[in-house]
């Protein structure tokens, strides 16, 4: 096997990009979970970062009545265009040093290509599953309350929510966290062959299979948060308690729970016995230890007086220049004690008196975290910023728990386009596609580092098409 010592030579037997790209797309298909279950918009047209693609959301028809003498009522078959920006250029690069190119392709594949493609698969699934927070308006279950005794009821409640929203019955999926998957597998009716009717497959392979109209999957990238950011010591303060649907509450004990910060617009919290994430939209401070809080969404379950309320800490943006709309890399925050975890929900508010939620109050999922020391943390989000951030803007972190994602494939769209080939004479590359995903492999010889640089990358964008077609099963 010849080495790749001459940058522009044709002796590239070990590094033929078509072979590497073909193997990459096969490996990617084997490793992705969530991305394989949603709508994918793919056309074999070269695109570049920042291009906008219009994907389509089908329009629903309404059945009409007629008599023998009437003409039929013709409805326009119009699909709504939803613009999606190709603003996610994901890549993994690795160097194969001189001397290692003598290894067989199988050795190079297992040592380098497989972990590189697995990292891309993880990133894609994180991008898709990070959209779960945009479906919190359809939340069922309760944060931190999912056990083997509650999981069946929570699944049925989630099914009911999707039925009420008229989500298509065929093609529903449920992607669970490892915690939820483990609790469900403790139940006989999930795995026993006589109850499942699968001749023991579920028991042998620890597979949940199809239950309650959901094809069930476990994915390690489904948000599951233990959260060290809880602020306790707050309680509901109204003798009569609050009924289902309430959007304002009086609370006491806030003086000891603020953690040095006032409870303010943007804060996330949940109430014991309700257990649904709520976000503060307005406050009225009455005294040192009392506060009136307006929030969204309304209570899902009635709460009594003295029931505990758990708020969650916030942080500040830590960059003088702030971050522009469309920024997609690491965001530096500080002023928080405790860990912001991968999978955490975050939202932003403009600092002030009072704070102001971002326009549209978008919710993001943290897909990577770096600790810069002290209370300064770098976070990377599931998608680029929808609204610009200024220095000292507030970063609000969501509640702990498991955020299992139920959806029909048309709830989301992953838009993928092929990347252009490497410039002639500088490198060699190949793009291959399958099942609506295109992946490019580029091979370049680096004379300084004395090795072959291999980059595996793809270009995509993500969009929510219809929130009625998805729900969150909290746990």
Per DSSP, what share of the residues sits in E-state strands of 2 or more residues?
A: 25-35%
Question: CA-to-CA gap between the ends?
Answer: 54 Å
CATH architecture grouping of the domain at 227-312: Beta Barrel
CATH C-level of the domain at 227-312: Mainly Beta
The major β-sheet equals: 7 strands, mixed
* Rg: 25 Å
**Helicity level:** 10-25%
How does the helix and strand content classify structurally? alpha+beta
- Runs with pLDDT <50, length 5+? 1-13, 193-197, 199-206
In round numbers, the mean pLDDT is 85
Q: Output the CATH topology of the domain at 227-312.
A: Elongation Factor Tu (Ef-tu), domain 3
Oligomer: single chain
Number of helices: 7
Tell the overall outline: globular
The count of strands amounts to 28
Summarize the structure.
By secondary structure, this protein is α+β, with helices and mostly antiparallel strands. The protein has helices at 17-31, 105-129, 151-164, 178-185, 188-191, 193-196, 201-205; strands at residues 39-42, 52-57, 80-85, 88-97, 139-141, 172-176, 210-211, 214-218, 224-225, 230-236, 248-252, 268-271, 278-285, 290-296, 308-312, 314-317, 331-334, 345-350, 356-357, 364-373, 376-381, 394-397, 401-408, 412-417, 428-434, 437-446, 451-464, 470-474. Among the domains are: 227-312, Elongation Factor Tu (Ef-tu), domain 3; 315-399, Beta Barrel (Elongation Factor Tu (Ef-tu), domain 3).
Please explain how this structure is put together.
The chain is of the alpha+beta class and about 475 residues long. Among the domains are: about 225-310, Elongation Factor Tu (Ef-tu), domain 3, CATH 2.40.30; about 315-400, Beta Barrel (Elongation Factor Tu (Ef-tu), domain 3). It has helices at about 15-30, 105-130, 150-165, 180-185, 190, 195, 200-205; strands spanning about 40, 50-55, 80-85, 90-95, 140, 170-175, 210, 215-220, 225, 230-235, 250, 270, 280-285, 290-295, 310, 315, 330-335, 345-350, 355, 365-375, 375-380, 395, 400-410, 410-415, 430-435, 435-445, 450-465, 470-475. Strands 5, 6, 7, 8, 9, 23 and 28 form a 7-stranded mixed sheet that branches. β18 (about 345-350) and β19 (about 355) form a beta hairpin. α1 packs across α2. Residues about 1-15, about 195 and about 200-205 have low confidence and may be disordered.
